Model the fold of this input.
Amino acid sequence: MTTMATAIAGAHKQWWATGDMPVREGSHVSYFIDGRATFLEMCRHFIRARHSIYLANWGLEPEMELVRGSDRAAIIKDAESHKAYVSELQLAGLAAPDIDFWLNNTLTVINVLRYAAGKGVDVKVLLWKAKKSFAVYDPQRVHDLLTEAGITCLLDDSAEGILHHPIESLHQKATVIDGSYAFIGGLDPLIEKEDDFDRWDTPEHLYSTPLRRTHNETTPHAWHDVHTLIEGPAAGDVALNFRQRWNDVIHRHHKIKKFLVSEQPLPPAVRSNSLVQIARTVPKHTYSFDRNAIKGITQLYDHAFTNTEQFVYLENQYFWTHAYYGIDIPFVGNESPEMDQHVEQLCQALKRGVTISIILPDHPNVGRAFSDAALTALRNKVPEAEAEGRIQAFCLASSIYLDQPAHITRYRPIYVHAKVGIVDDEWYTIGSGNLNNRGMSDDTEINVAVLNSQQAHGLRILLQGEHLGLVTAVDIDRAARLLSNKPLNASDKEHAQHILDYLETTLGDPFAAVHLMHERAMDNLERFKVNQPLIGHLLPYLTTAEALNHHLKVNGDHGWIEEGAKPSQNSQDAENLEGKQEH
Done:
């Protein structure tokens, strides 16, 4: 390592995957919490693109609006606000024709990509050719719509065949603009119109909002996710990933060679105090560029869980030690050796005195019993850590108080789709790889790992602040931009620093922060039981057995939040909670 690298906190430890992508200096990573901030930034980059836009996605909805609500020009009426709005677009790097398009069009995926293609930008979209039994949208329909719009689209069938896991998917969410900017994380530009999920959401995760509507005019479940923007040489590694996958499909299906993506030089280094690595999961027999399995993401977690000396903070869609084959019964599927190893590493960390907190969805789409089983195993293996409160599991929910026609509170689980790991406020990873067999070995995935203590610390306190209800969407967006050295006007910069100072005072100590999360979650559980609105979004993640012990209605597949609380036997409980606010 160079002198700059060794000056980075934690650089003396081994954090990195081997055998695939290199560790990069001179690369910068920005993170975006939830869909609103992610898709707004993505849209800006699409519209100002000069040469190329490449997307590799699990799913995509052409008619999805990337920019909504107060971010849309159409809702701005007075001249002064309009001037400030245009100034913000100029600050984001949009030229006059781009601003004109932004102001006068609905910014759907297909409209924005069509606009870019019309300027001569090479727009390519690589989509997983999902089997009908697993698809949440129609890939062929999307292919045809994009093709009609002048966009080159390929359906990637690389996960098909008898050599593959029966429900294997191409799960990457990777976007590259002009070869120099890359987005990766947990978000596809997708609304599952026949289901109940819209990836666009704000950190408030409102119970109901007209900005998020499915075809049946209902508000989908709130959606929590995290995404990144990468600049510098590491963005070139994401571009390499796209080129390898795209060209492999072109060659395999004997497509016209003019559609091949040519090799480009790495983007130049940018100012950065980080070490950055792109890591992948690619199963055997998927692509010709590597006949052996690529297991970089599980290597990252191997090193991170081995290195930890203080705490591990996780947000994930799953936490499984067994493979899922379509049946929600633990131990029916084969064991996942990678996840078995990770659970054992976490057990060893607990024995060293480490604190572990994990945020999971109460109602995942599949496999809730699998997460229950893995959590129970972790607790049973290190009972002293459980007794000391060093294993904390949470889920998230939104609530709304309705005073008409009856005084009642309604609750909905927030779908936790983020794939985030933070260790000791030194290192973090964000990407598409879940903590299950698919993320570690059986699906095609991509993550970024970053060694930067300021950013890791900032990400943790922003996420915890969101879940505790301490900050607004505007607070989070501005603070994240300040942490990522993104442009902010003087007033917004001052506001962002104020928010970070407040969160530092409240959550800077990671152990005090976890204790506060536990207190808030348990307080909200009591509020739930007596039908009172939640403060923030935190609730304890309860296994089916734990929910029953709390006398809650519970569904083994869907959790307990949607099932509703058992009616309180003591109306005084509700009165006791009145006025109980921040701790």
Remarks:
- The chain has a mean pLDDT of 91.
- The chain is about 35% helix and 20% strand.
- The CA atoms of residues 316 and 419 lie 5 Å apart.
